[in-house]
Amino acid sequence: MPKLLFVLAERGFSDDELRALRSRLVSRGVDVRTAGKNPKKVIGTVRLQLVPDVPIHKSCLHGVDGVVVLGGHGARKYLWGDRDVMQLVEGAALEHKILVGVGLGAVLPAQATLLVGKDATCAPEEDAIYELRKHNARYVQVPVVEADNGVITASGPEAAEELVHLIMDKLSRRRVAEAHPRL
């Protein structure tokens, strides 16, 4: 069973992004785990509270097929530029795992310099667009973008269906590649 790790801000993660993506992925047989800086409790923008499955650190990449960094207003304060989150994002890219940034969470791959010279999207908020451009990504106003290095960015929960389709396609390709490795 494929497994994805959703990275959540300690406070103010996007409940809408979590619900829209998790329900669609779980219904397609994906095991969705959550990671947070606070191992006891994280709180969403609409007060959804949950206990993360794992704390955020690079070693939580073991056994997962990909990392999805969710947005919400808390991403600015708790995720942007955070050393542990940056190491997780960079580690996912180095290990050729699926890497997705959604809404304000799309800033993280840019801050990790994974989107230099590449098209990317994010929540249509001035500071997020500024962060993408500051890290030399080309902001495009579309729901979902897959850069030529495989990093995926999405504008927010309204892009969930298209994003899930792309994630499922990438998971399928990973499974085929693992089943038939090139010699």
Question: What would the keywords be for this entry?
Answer:
single chain, 183 residues, alpha/beta, Rossmann fold, 7-stranded mixed sheet, 3-stranded mixed sheet, 6 helices, globular
Structure description:
The chain is an alpha/beta fold. It has one domain (3-179): Class I glutamine amidotransferase (GATase) domain (Rossmann fold). It has six helices and twelve strands. The protein has helices spanning 15-27, 74-79, 83-94, 107-111, 126-134, 160-179; strands at residues 3-8, 11-13, 31-36, 42-44, 49-50, 54-55, 66-69, 98-102, 119-120, 138-139, 144-146, 152-154. It has a seven-stranded mixed beta sheet with strand order 6-3-1-7-8-12-11, sandwiched between helices. Helix 1 crosses helix 6 (160-179). The mean pLDDT is 94.
* CATH architectural label: 3-Layer(aba) Sandwich
pLDDT averaged over residues: 94
Could you tell me the number of beta strands? 12
Distance between the termini: 25 Å
The tally of structural domains comes to 1
General form: globular
- Helix-strand pattern, N to C? EEHEEEEEHHEHEHEEEH
Unreliable stretches: none
Q: Within the largest sheet, what's the order of strands?
A: 6-3-1-7-8-12-11
Residue share in helix: 25-40%
Structural class: alpha/beta
